Amino acid sequence: MAPITEVDGRRVALSNLDKVLYPATGLTKAELLHYYATVAEVLLPHLRDRPVSFLRYPDGPDGQVFFTKNVPPGTPDWVTTAEVPRSEGPARMVLVQDLASLMWAANLVTEFHTHQWVAGDPAEADRLVLDLDPGPPATVVDCCQVALWLRERLARDGIEVYAKTSGAKGLHLLAGVRGASSERVSEYAKALAVEAEAAMPELVVHRMTRSLRPGKVFVDWSQNAARKTTAAPYTVRARAEPAVSAPVTWEEVAGCRAVDELVLLPGEVAARVAEYGDLLAPLFDRRAAGELP
């Protein structure tokens, strides 16, 4: 029987704590849960009020990996849920609102993925996201070059953008926006990707077609669609090593010269949070959110 612990007055069952989830580094489930508890103060604001999709990998990234969007069976009745519109009819999804629900969800062993809108107002986006995905032999170093161009371009429209690692091969750029639908944000993001390709045709592609992507950075604008989700800040990814989708500074982006420079593991991220706090905290200032031209 799984041991029960109390988290903020809630009883949470934590199972298989000694299981090694990442053989490459020896990271155990207990260590993964400890990481999430350590960064909860900065992670929770990025999850709160956003319906969460879980990419689950209960036996580690080498085992079965599957998406869960609906409320999982056995979810405690104290976990907050919300009805979410879908083309096939409304569904109910989890909201990770507090430390107890975070630890319950982390015990499922999951990547956290969120929409660019909050529950109750799916018609209006409050975030813009650009996913920079390198097609080998392009790497994150090339993504950084594209990110710097996009940062300057967005600044011309009065939009401040922030960077985080994807936790995989590339980078995510995030900006706060207001007064626009997901459809309008998608249109704007696509226009940016097209413009980036025109400015750097040898380096950028805006279309998803696989045959176009080797050696280039795919600027994926499509994750702004209302139905799409993106890996949340501070989530550990289901990859061979437990890389985190972690915020980075623009100085780190500009100075990146090697593939492994922006690979951040849980212990490193926890230390960065202790030193810097949340580098993405400005995203929560609605007064600073940009308006699309």
UniProtKB/TrEMBL annotation:
<keyword id="KW-0436">Ligase</keyword>
<dbReference type="InterPro" id="IPR014145">
    <property type="entry name" value="LigD_pol_dom"/>
</dbReference>
<dbReference type="InterPro" id="IPR033649">
    <property type="entry name" value="MtLigD_Pol-like"/>
</dbReference>
<protein>
    <submittedName>
        <fullName>Non-homologous end-joining DNA ligase</fullName>
    </submittedName>
</protein>
<dbReference type="InterPro" id="IPR052171">
    <property type="entry name" value="NHEJ_LigD"/>
</dbReference>
<feature type="domain" description="DNA ligase D polymerase">
    <location>
        <begin position="28"/>
        <end position="279"/>
    </location>
</feature>
<dbReference type="Pfam" id="PF21686">
    <property type="entry name" value="LigD_Prim-Pol"/>
</dbReference>
<dbReference type="GO" id="GO:0016874">
    <property type="term" value="F:ligase activity"/>
</dbReference>
